[in-house]
Amino acid sequence: MIALAVSISAALSAMPCVGAAGTIVGTASVIDADTIEIHGTRIRLNAIDAIESRQRCTLPSGRRWNCGKDAAFALADWIGRSPVDCDVVDIDRYGRSVAKCRLRGEDIGEWLVSHGWAVAYRRYGLDYVGAEDRARAAGRGIWASEFVMPWDWRKGVR
Q1: pLDDT tens across 2-50, in order?
Q2: Is the keyword Signal assigned to this protein (predicted)?
């Protein structure tokens, strides 16, 4: 009986904590700058689009840099091992949960866009347009360079 209780307890701890309103809570792994995973559940951050992991940006000096990888690394460094909580708002065509997520009470999408690691994805919401405008004006992150919008890059515009 004790072995069964330990097995059930281990299985439950490996699962994300999902609340009644579609909330997922747990330690997140960064897949790329707009997708995280919590205990095997892929979560696409709502209303933002980040530079793709293989995408490069060009600084005014002409030097190219791995802005997509840097965006993912910046998010991973910021999250660390702290718990993340996500309110699921939809499921995308790839079966990922689409959610608004928070770290220590701060909106992760807002953080990414305001630091210049992602752009407001106006097609899916206007939540982060102001943060994008401020990041662009300050030349933060990708806004310090030339880049192709991620949705165009995915279509083959390089």
Answers
A1: 433 333 333 333 444 544 349 999 999 999 999 999 989 999 999 999 9
A2: yes
